[in-house]
Structures are given as structure tokens and as C-alpha cells.
Design brief:
InterPro entries: QslA (IPR040654). With about 110 residues, this protein is an alpha+beta fold. About 60% of the residues lie in helices and about 10% in strands. The N and C termini lie far apart (about 45 Å).
Length: about 110
């Protein structure tokens, strides 16, 4: 906050931060988070419907496959996990999370080696 002619005034950055904070607060129920993994950043997305449980399921399914806790082919872990969800938006959220988690692992492996 600065003083302009003796009157407190917000800087442009402060105004933008306030605006962003207001948007986040308004849409917080529609924000989904894919956590960071393997030294790779996470991902925050604004989703059109509440979908964090589907996101979490996609991440968990990919992690279980990567840890050999799911037998079989990658595509079957993907397809069975996705098909267990009831709505198209939840299925898409699962897909995004599953593939993002695999991408995190692949990028980490590529950078380390």
C-alpha cells in the first residue's frame, strides 16, 4: 500500500493479487490439485464441476501401477479406473490426473538420467 496525495492507495501488483485472491475464493470448490511428485511440480486446475475425488483416484491409480501394486498392462489400469466413475467430467478428471502423474515420473527419469 502506498500513499498518494496522503491517501492510502494499492499498487498495481496489490490490486492484481487482490483480484486473483477473490477469484480463487469464489471458485475454490472448483479448484483441483494434482500434487507434486518425483521432484516435479504439481498442477492446480479450475474444473467445471467438483472433481477432486476423481483427481485423487487418477493419481492413486497411476501410483499403484508404477509401484507394481496393480498387475497387468498400463492401459487396463487406466481403463478400469476411468470406467469406474459415473460422469464424463469425472472420467476426464481421472484421465488428466492419471496421465499427469505418469508424466511427472517420466520427466523426472529423463532429467535424472
Amino acid at each position: 500500500m502506498t500513499l498518494r496525495n496522503g491517501v492510502p492507495s494499492m499498487t498495481k501488483d496489490e490490486k492484481e493479487k487482490t483480484h486473483v485472491d477473490a477469484i480463487i475464493e469464489r471458485y475454490k470448490d472448483l479448484m483441483v490439485e494434482i500434487p507434486p511428485a518425483d521432484r516435479q511440480p504439481g498442477l492446480s486446475l479450475l474444473w467445471p464441476v467438483p472433481a477432486q475425488p476423481a483427481i485423487d483416484k487418477g493419481v492413486r491409480q497411476a501410483e499403484n501401477w508404477l509401484a507394481d501394486q496393480i498387475e497387468g498392462q498400463l492401459w487396463t489400469a487406466f481403463a478400469f479406473g476411468r470406467d469406474s466413475l459415473p460422469t464424463p467430467m469425472q472420467k476426464t478428471a481421472f484421465e488428466v490426473a492419471f496421465l499427469t502423474r505418469l508424466q511427472q515420473r517420466l520427466v523426472a527419469a529423463r532429467r535424472s538420467g
